[in-house]
Write a structure and sequence with these properties.
Layout (H helix, E strand, L loop, with lengths): L52
Length: 52
């Protein structure tokens, strides 16, 4: 999977005139070919389930 993330965007000013912070999270259920490896990987099936 190749992706070119959106790096420029336009939105209205913040109400407090401070800079916005952006968190970019990518999720995938695709396994990479053996030659490639995710830089960071968390198996969601290995996480404990919590409620509330």
């Amino acid at each position: 999977m190749l992706m070119k993330p959106l790096t420029l965007h336009s939105s209205s000013r913040t109400t407090n005139n401070k800079k916005r912070r952006v968190i970019h999270i990518e999720l995938s259920n695709v396994e990479l070919p053996k030659e490639l490896k995710w830089a960071e990987r968390i198996n969601l099936t290995d996480l404990p389930l919590t409620c509330g």
